[in-house]
Fold each of these.
Amino acid sequence: MVESVALVIPSLEKLGISRDRPLVIVDVDEVLGLFMKGFGGFLDARGYDFRIDRFALFQNIYVRGAVEHLDLETGRALFNEFFASHCAEIEPAPGAIEALTRLHRRAEILILSNAPPQAEQLRGEWLRRHGLPHPLILSSGPKGPITAGLVAQTPQRTAFVDDLLPNLDSVAEHSPATATFQHVADERLRPLAPSAPERHPRIDDWAELAAAIEAAIHRP
Ligand SMILES: [Mg+2]
């Protein structure tokens, strides 16, 4: 039986987000931070290879030297352990901090990350430590419904940035007025990541991306 789970939409007011400025909603992994690199280092220290030869996650984890990838359950356990204990060690994506600092001069920033709940404290600390003291929401599943619920609370223009096409398509479906942008931070992933630039401009350089976001949210 499929049970429907009621989606709880956080209040922008309680998050400290003003309705007087445009709202930019930004992902963390492979957008603000180099997740694959950090998770790869975590796996390497435990005797696993993380082979980035396709756009996948658990299917890319191998016991060192193995031909078949690790079973998905063990991969998921490693993923959860990484988020509970090591996710504050990832490197910021090049240019991301400067770009968000620039955007924040004229817009509100909200961080929307699909990460396990146990990541909340470390992920928040990571953001603050890197000069990004913006509200953080941890979520799961396609990001369209929660984004639509957030966007509905402000009369201002909105933008959304993510590395994953399913999240971008979900936001376009549920919140069509929101400008969507794709950014893939890891250079090894860039040629592998599915894109649809006719629907979501793909801009892997953060300085260019910030300029495009500003053009979208501040146009007359
Ligand atoms: Mg991501």
Amino acid sequence: MNIHAYPIYAPLKNPLAAKIANVKPQTLAALDLWMKRIHSVVEVIKRADAYSMVDAEQTFIQYTIDSVTRQLQRIYNNDKVVIMNTFQAYLKRTKRNVGLEVLACKMRGKPYGSKLVRGAYGTEENKIALEQQVESPVFPNKMLVDKSYNDIVQFVIKNVPPHSHFTVASHNETTLELALAAVEDRKKELEVQKSQISFAQLRGLSDNLTYHLAQTGHYTFKYMPYGPIENLAPYLFRRAEEASYIWLEGQKKLVHVRHELFDVRKFHYKFFGALGGIVGLIALI
Ligand SMILES: Cc1cc2nc3c(=O)[nH]c(=O)nc-3n(C[C@H](O)[C@H](O)[C@H](O)COP(=O)(O)OP(=O)(O)OC[C@H]3O[C@@H](n4cnc5c(N)ncnc54)[C@H](O)[C@@H]3O)c2cc1C
């Protein structure tokens, strides 16, 4: 049974459950308000004929994100995808979950909408699992993560129901080649059923791949970080770490991330004073 198909907060409205879980009426009211705000944002997205991708985070919060996202998908994803969830291929459970979700969409006659990433919190997931003395939810090595990612890409491209939207979010050239081959194999059917397979890279990373994909007629976009420096810094540090790994393997993508960090530092130095500059400077070191 997929318990996350149910609203997370509805059971808490049961007085007995609320008592057991020690949920205060103010908390339920805040949750209601939060859901109302999310609905109003999604309404705007829908009216603009756009779509939204919900990012994936660490597993301790991901169940809640999945639950809310699925509730929104049930309401808004009808004749087209408005809300896309994100799946992390480094999780042992993902391949099975994606299979079930594609099947569920097919059975309900609804489009499937998701973005697939490898996953950015592997070190943290392993650390938490070790501390709690439980099995890590993440595969133990890159080879298994790559297999999971590539299997899911091939499965989804082969099986998506009509009007779906699936995004291959990766900088890995082998994965992208494999995805392109799978799209080529089903090109006609995907066109007829009006399903969209898109590609995405992060701003500051693999611009060469993004340009190539776009120039060869594939729906491709860049993820751009936007927000206050205190919120952006952890994100940019993670990217810098990834970019340095890629760079060590012989590519020069770190340079782009450095430019990105430098731009953010400059912007914040100019508008928010020295603090933003200091954070940006540490990031550059
Ligand atoms: C458009 C876009 C959106 C993204 N959104 C999210 C998001 O919502 N949530 C999120 O978590 N991440 C997100 N990411 C980041 C993503 O999860 C990866 O961290 C990043 O893209 C690097 O993976 P890759 O496929 O590009 O490259 P690769 O270099 O092929 O893969 C690197 C990844 O492989 C895995 N890996 C590497 N070494 C090991 C090891 N020893 N054991 C196990 N696994 C290993 C890790 O997941 C690592 O990030 C996003 C990336 C893109 C491009």
